[in-house]
Amino acid sequence: MKIASVVGARPNFIKLAPLFKTLKMRFTQLIIHTGQHYDYEMDRIFFDELKIPDPDYHLGVGSGTHGYQVGEILKKTEEVLIKEKPELVIVYGDTNSTLGGALASCKLGIRTAHVEAGLRCFDRRMPEEINRVLTDHSSDILFCPTRLAVLNLKKEGITRNVFRVGDVMVDSIKENLKIAERKSSILDELCLKPKTYILATLHRAENTDTLERLKAILEAFERIPNLVFVCHPRTRRILEENGLFAKLSEKILMTPPLGYFDMLILEKNAEKILTDSGGVQKEAYLLNVPCVTLRERTEWVETVQAGWNILVGADKNLILESARSFKPVSEKKKIFQAGASKKILRILENYLYNT
Ligand code: UD1
Ligand code: UDP
Fold first, then answer.
1. What does the pLDDT average to over 3-26?
2. Distance from the CA of 165 to the center of ligand 1, in angstroms?
3. Fewer CB within 10 Å: N-end or C-end of the chain?
4. Band of the pLDDT at 219, cuts 50, 70, 90?
């Protein structure tokens, strides 16, 4: 039995790592890398740190418009799938590589599994929301991280082969936090002491591509004491194009994208996290760090309901106020179950060998 995983962007690699290792016990696996992310620190570093084998195919798609990226991924993944004829294709999360991979697979009639299915933020202006909806509706097996994700699918009429398995990123943290503590020296490198700084990431299109929103967020960043801003290449490019990068980097501590080990250590030791990332919101919760989300809506609704995440959008004053005084009021509930990779293995054994 052959399973092909289609990945291409940073969060895809982090979700692939624990599952690839687990599925190795029972299946022959292929990795198809679309090439959506390509800088060392957005791509290769995760293969090295998480010991993911080199991709079997690299499609070299790179950057471009949504139409270009999804189109090229669809076309080039199809060529590989026709040649390799896997029994199953797995896609992860909500990137253009996720959607392109799912479309290529389902159009060829190959069974398709979506890891992190059923998430919704109910804002179709976000490219990730479109990718989630279309990927879920193109998939045959849906691996949901939470109860709410299962419910979201039910409301859209998807009830067959829907499994609540927990979250593969819990497995990833479990496997890697101790290693990260041993290997990372990022706190020393940046001269930081635990719980004395606020960590920020920012890269979602709705924030970076609207200059008004971007400027409001950056004005808030500049006024937050002890802020560490880990800057995505998309954001850096837009800052540079608008002549904002040099001025900002004089005022706050900025770093290029970091590897997973350094990122986990920075997250765990932060007093608070400011982010528009999906994965970072979830990791903040798992690592017991209060999160201020620079969006109006989130697909990780449970973290907000639990009182550990607050949505502030791009409102400068709200960002400043929350960075200063947001505190979770309630005890953390267990939202994200561990052991997703093993559950997925068992389900796939049954599904692929018995149907
Ligand atoms: C993509 C995902 C987003 C995810 C993010 C994770 C889509 C629609 N968006 O956004 O959901 O949160 O990845 O990080 O799939 N760039 C580089 N080097 C790279 C990669 C990108 O410089 O290795 C720059 C290029 O200027 C590129 C821009 O970043 O145009 C955007 O890259 P792209 O892959 O289109 O989307 P992300 O913003 O990374
Ligand atoms: N991440 C990382 N280095 C960074 C920023 C993020 O390793 O500089 C990790 C982060 O710990 C999480 C994942 O990347 O596991 C989240 O990806 P990202 O924020 O790029 O995308 P999203 O989750 O928003 O799709």
1. 97
2. 28
3. C
4. very high
